[in-house]
């Protein structure tokens, strides 16, 4: 689009803002009163315009999150969040996420896209891992760990490391390192993979999971450090690992940071719901927004049952329950205690 001139005049009760470089007159309505009051209908149209663009962006982000977990996008926001909750109820969920996060790191070091890590790629990985552990200037430690790793690979009749061994040995997390001897633990590379695990790994080999995972950083308000190995290990610890003795684990990041990210992930899903219904981004859910909220809640909680025709009845009940200051609007802090109940009732119905 061409630039616009700064000249201004009047044409047929309109104000000429300028003329672009294609000689088309650019006009806007002439307002005799600069403080003209905006009508309710104009407010509604503007609110809808803002809400549409905002919903598109929020759904785009969340659709990518769902895709990473191989979950479909639903029209109902509660169904979307509930599908994430249900995913982590599955017995194999953590293994699946672990594979995907590990593959992001594996692909990062697989510079030639050969689907194996050769000696030079492994050396760079080991160097970065040792740097994270505080051994940035210890060349003898790097040489020792590489020698032990090459020895282990020879026992597997290969001079390269496959993704299967990379994931199954937990080498990405540093668990396979014996830091007292500066070697890798052979037993970490000897566990056999189940057919189910091999099948899952096979299905991931052609996926560029880094592109799928990048929106996690934006959606969960996490600023990447620039060290992919560290950042993925942090999310691996939050999403995959059960509570365990942290003292026995290599220190790839500060445990306090893990706790912060963990809280962000838990609260962000609920914040996502609030933002979804705060159409005009005012920081509160107003009455008309609350109508949409209650329709969607009713949809997920009353499947197969008769729905309440007069949604205003439900809106009034919600305001009575949540509107602590009586301003006819609901803030994030007012609604947040009530959202977990929705998901509890959804799980009871499934």
Mind explaining what this structure looks like?
- This protein is 55% helix and 7% strand.
- The protein is mainly alpha-helical.
- It is elongated.
- Mean pLDDT is 80; it is low at 1-36.
Q: Which structural category fits the helices and strands? A: mainly alpha
Q: What does the overall shape look like?
A: elongated
Number of helices: 14
Strand content: 5-15%
Q: Quick one: how many beta strands?
A: 9
Span between termini: 53 Å
Radius of gyration: 28 Å
Question: Care to give the gist of this entry?
Answer:
The chain is built from 14 helices and 9 strands. It has helices at 40-68, 77-87, 93-109, 119-132, 139-155, 163-168, 195-204, 209-219, 228-239, 255-277, 287-301, 311-322, 332-335, 339-349; strands spanning 9-11, 14-19, 25-29, 116-117, 161-162, 177-178, 183-184, 284-285, 330-331.
Topology, pairings included?
Blueprint: E1 9-11, E2 14-19, E3 25-29, H1 40-68, H2 77-87, H3 93-109, E4 116-117, H4 119-132, H5 139-155, E5 161-162, H6 163-168, E6 177-178, E7 183-184, H7 195-204, H8 209-219, H9 228-239, H10 255-277, E8 284-285, H11 287-301, H12 311-322, E9 330-331, H13 332-335, H14 339-349
Antiparallel strand pairs: 1-2, 2-3, 4-5, 6-7, 8-9
Helix pairs in contact: 1-8, 3-7, 3-9, 4-5, 9-10, 11-12
Features of this protein?
350 residues; mainly alpha; three-stranded antiparallel beta sheet; two-stranded antiparallel sheet; 14 helices; disordered N terminus
